[in-house]
Amino acid sequence: MIFTEKQIESISPNPAAYSAGKGLSSKHKWVSFKKNDRAIWGEIKGSGKNPYQVQIDLSAVAYKCSCPSRQFPCKHSIALLLLYANSENDFEKVTEEPEWVKNWLDKRQAKAEKPEKAVERTEEEQQKLDKAKEKTQVDRFDSVCEGVKELELWLKDIVRMGILELPAKPASEFEKTAKRMVDAKAPGLAGWVKAFTKLDYQDPDAWQGEALKIISKLFLLVSTFKNYDKLSPEWQITIKNLVGWNQSTKDLITDKEAMTIKDKWLAAGQEFEAIDDITIQRNWLVGCNTNQKALILNFGSAFSVIENSVLPGSVIEAEMAFFPSVLPNRAVIKIQRNVNNEINELPCFLNTWNEAYCYQTELLKVNPWANDHLLLIKDTRLFNDGKRWIVCDKEKSFMYLVEGFDYQKIMRWLVISGNRSQDISCILRNNKIMPLGIFQGKEYIIL
What global pTM score does this model have? Predict the structure, then answer.
């Protein structure tokens, strides 16, 4: 696989790391750099006595460097990727890998092919563990129920007083209610409450409709949770996830009953969002043969970096496991076999924004809280109506871009397309779109 500079920039932990890596990507900076079908590796002189050993797994896009940096990937890994992207033919191709590369690759392969063994416990130990887990779940459920009661009264007070009073409320009131939901172990509900603080109260035509939408969906969620015992198992899991229960990636990978799909997955785009002290990385993928959409979430903090293994714009040959839900979407990579930039078969496209709305309507019939829909649309053009950027389809219907969309990406789209019609991928979010990339034939270009 040959990486593009745009892909490498997208997986860099920050602009400074990418800039530093670019400064180390010249051939004369490296003691050696080699490749084979499994990996690329090299040695680069650092501040220590011995050169740093850098290695990249090409089949699953993973990085390792002997330097002490806590960034992931570090500047040396970024430099080796850039060197490979720009001078692939200069890498010496060898059959045998050095021991430090072979050991790392073999361990990764063995771990991928052989799941972790379950911890062996006696029957008595297992019973104690199960009872403790059950008590923890019961205590949490009771706590969430109390939080739901409080939130229902709070919502009714808002409706009773009238939503025109919302702009006069201090942000501290919403923060206080959100904190109460966190204390009640329902962080998902806290996120809905915080949404009130993000409304543009200077625009009455916009915020009133959005406020009603938040109130309606939140009240529906609260009412549904109160009827938890009457729901199907799929709906119970879905509602608990919306309220704030975490899903275990480890349990999903080892669950033999989990929904799994094998396909070649196009990594259509990636987004980062910082919420409090947590960074959320969203990766949107679509199966080239099945057209199944998938969302891979990764989380990072000041104490735990995000291991960025999904390369935007790449095609990943993998078996994906999906978390149980009434509308399975969130997934993890269970087994990955290969990664490249070649799209042999294109997924399905929608033709117009009207088709996109119909598609969204069908999804909302299944799950009324569903949002962030990955769409592939044919024949679109980017325009500016004098105030905002819009994307028109071939029927001259249009959609607004999401607020704050990166202006550099807008310019990149115009340069790449020459303002001609382009097939694109995008996220439909709150009836606005966030473009991810452009298709040119079977080539996919990340914005």
Answer: 0.82
Q: At what angle do helices 233-243 and 204-226 cross, to 10 degrees?
A: 130
Three-state SS at 190: helix
pLDDT digits over 353-402, tens only? Answer: 999 999 999 999 999 999 899 999 999 999 998 888 999 999 999 999 99
Residue 164 pairs with which residues in a beta bridge?
Answer: none
Q: Is 346 exposed, middle or buried (0-12, 13-18, 19+ CB in 10 A)?
A: middle
d(CA 289, CA 229): 38
- All residues at 6 or more sequence positions from 417 whose CB lies less than 8 Å from its CB, including other chains: 381, 382, 438
Band (pLDDT 50/70/90 cuts) for residue 119 is: low
The β-bridge relationship of strands 92-93 and 373-384 is unpaired
Among 24-28, 230-234, 262-266, which is the least confidently predicted range?
Answer: 24-28
3-state helix vs strand vs coil in the chain, percent to 5: 40, 25, 30
Long-range contacts of 145-151 (CB under 8 A, 24+ apart): 146/184, 147/180, 147/181, 147/183, 147/184, 147/185, 147/186, 147/189, 148/184, 148/186, 148/189, 148/222, 148/225, 148/226, 148/243, 150/180, 150/184, 151/177, 151/181, 151/189, 151/193, 151/218, 151/222
Q: Are 57 and 72 in contact (CB under 8 A)?
A: no
- DSSP β-bridge partners for residue 259: 322
- Domains, the chain, with CATH or none: 5-113 (no CATH), 124-243 (no CATH), 249-340 (2.40.50), 353-446 (2.40.50)
d(CA 137, CA 120): 23
Q: Which helix (H) or strand (E) holds 361?
A: helix 353-366
Q: Name the residue among 144, 101, 164 with its Cα closest to residue 245.
A: 144
Q: H or E segment at 355?
A: helix 353-366
pLDDT digits (tens, 9 = 90+) for 223-260: 999 999 999 999 999 999 999 988 888 888 888 889 99
DSSP per position, 19-73: HHHHHT-SGGGEEEEEE-SSEEEEEE--SSSSPEEEEEETTTTEEEESS---SSS
User: How far apart, in whole angstroms, are the C-alpha atoms of residue 62 and residue 56?
Assistant: 6
